[in-house]
Every structure is written in structure tokens, then in C-alpha cells.
């Protein structure tokens, strides 16, 4: 199974580019989590994240994480600044594999196809640069600059939930096409360790699980116009494995856990 690292740029003490109360790090994380969710729900792939919360992660930590996990591909998510407009992608400006170049071509085309004409987003082109996360990763890597936080029209799109959804889906589809990821055809049994309308409650549940050695993620869903934050504590192709995880959660006192079939 292919292993992909998604890297939400900045975080914690490093806000990235800002515009009033809007911070790049927040947009980066939102997009990255949605890319992860699209990939894991629709394709056969193992997705790892350099961060899933607003925490500080150094550049070296990001690339070491990808290298130590022997990832097959690395995608860093960013928002641009400097008064421009539009979307662009980067790969390393030194020696790279042909696959790195072809993957950029594929992902770039897929994203522009998904958001270009629909949202009048300017294609700023495929570029190359000496960015740390592109230079120090031992696998093919790409860095995506998703619009400009300091341009009003671009910021309005970044604040648009439909745009973020379409951008994230197009990015996931581009990565999947570049890596020839197979689509999921089997039933998945997702173990939900609680569903909350307050994200803080979901974060607390996630931290509790991690303190007890259970990895989890927060998924955002909208039902009848209301937003819910689901804490997913595993996704399994066999129901027996999901039942075993459910039993673990019940043993920890989590009575509102359940299995979601998709």
C-alpha cells in the first residue's frame, strides 16, 4: 500500500502569512485534513500527517518524519502572500526523478481542472524552488501554494467552504492519479469514538484516546445543516477488527462509541 505524507505548513508559534485575523496555518490545516479524509475514504492508501492540530513543527521534523516512515510521496500544503492571485505548485529546483516531474504535471492539471474555471482561479504555473521540504525529503515531493491570503478575492475563496471542499478533493484526486492509487471497493467499518458539535470536546476525546495508545482523527461532517466533529478511532475492512476496537473503547468507558459502515 502506498504511503503518503500530507504536511500542513506552519502551525503553533508560526502562523505563516496573515491578513487581519486570518492565518495561513489555519487554512493549511483545514485543507490538509480534508485532503487526507478524501484520500483515505476513497482510495487504498496509508496517509500520515506531520500535524493534525495547531502545533509547532520544525522543517527538519517534517522531513525527518517523512523519511523515517519511508513515505512514497510528500505533499506540503501552503497559502501564498505578496499581493498576487491564483494557484501554483512547486518541486525541487535541483536533481529530481522523472516521476517527481510527472506527478507535478498530474496534480497540477487535476487541481486547475477542479477549481480553475469554476472559481475563476488563475493558473500561476508549475514552478521549482529550493524549499527545505522539497530538498530534504528522500521521496518525490510537491509543495502547493493555494491562493493568496492578502488578496481579497482569493481570501474570499479560502473562506468559502465549497471552494475548500472542491480544492481538497481535486488535490486528493491528483495525488491518487499520480500514484495510481486503486479506488476503495470494499466495505469499510469506521469506529467512531464520539460525535460532538463542539470541536473542543472532540479534541479532548482525541487526546484521551492518544493517552491510552489509540490513534484517532477528527472528521468534520454536516448533517441537516449542522456541523458535527466525529472522532474516528480506526477504519477496518473486517468487521471483527472494528468490533475489537469498539470493545477497547467501551473498556475505557466510552459508551457513545459506535461503528459506521461505508
Automatic annotation (TrEMBL):
Pfam families: Amidase_3, SPOR. Residues 183-262 form the SPOR domain. SMART domains: Ami_3. It comes from the Bacteria. GO terms for biological process: peptidoglycan catabolic process. GO terms for molecular function: N-acetylmuramoyl-L-alanine amidase activity; peptidoglycan binding. Keywords: Hydrolase. Residues 1-21 are annotated as: Disordered. GO terms for cellular component: outer membrane-bounded periplasmic space. This is N-acetylmuramoyl-L-alanine amidase.
Amino acid at each position: 500500500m502506498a504511503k503518503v505524507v500530507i504536511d500542513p505548513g506552519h502551525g503553533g508559534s508560526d502562523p505563516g502569512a496573515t491578513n487581519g485575523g486570518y492565518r495561513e496555518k489555519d487554512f493549511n490545516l483545514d485543507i490538509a485534513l480534508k485532503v487526507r479524509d478524501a484520500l483515505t475514504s476513497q482510495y487504498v492508501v496509508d496517509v500520515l500527517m506531520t500535524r493534525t492540530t495547531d502545533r509547532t513543527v520544525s522543517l527538519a521534523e517534517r522531513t525527518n518524519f517523512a523519511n523515517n516512515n519511508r513515505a512514497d510521496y510528500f505533499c506540503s500544503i501552503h497559502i501564498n502572500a505578496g499581493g498576487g492571485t491564483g494557484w501554483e505548485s512547486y518541486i525541487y529546483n535541483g536533481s529530481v526523478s522523472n516521476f517527481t516531474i510527472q506527478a507535478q504535471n498530474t496534480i497540477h492539471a487535476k487541481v486547475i481542472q477542479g477549481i480553475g474555471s469554476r472559481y475563476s482561479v488563475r493558473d500561476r504555473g508549475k514552478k521549482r524552488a529550493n524549499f527545505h521540504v522539497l530538498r530534504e525529503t528522500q521521496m518525490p515531493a510537491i509543495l502547493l501554494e493555494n491562493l493568496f491570503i492578502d488578496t481579497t478575492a482569493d481570501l474570499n475563496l479560502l473562506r468559502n467552504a465549497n471552494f475548500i471542499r472542491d480544492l481538497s478533493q481535486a488535490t486528493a484526486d491528483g495525488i491518487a492519479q499520480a500514484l495510481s492509487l486503486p479506488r476503495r471497493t470494499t466495505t469499510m467499518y469506521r469506529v467512531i469514538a464520539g460525535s460532538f458539535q463542539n470541536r473542543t470536546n472532540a479534541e479532548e476525546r482525541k487526546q484521551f484516546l492518544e493517552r491510552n495508545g489509540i490513534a484517532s482523527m477528527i472528521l468534520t461532517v454536516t448533517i441537516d445543516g449542522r456541523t458535527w466533529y466525529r472522532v474516528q478511532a480506526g477504519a477496518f475492512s473486517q468487521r471483527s477488527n472494528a468490533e475489537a476496537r469498539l470493545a477497547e473503547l467501551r473498556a475505557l468507558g466510552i459508551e457513545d462509541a459506535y461503528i459506521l459502515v461505508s
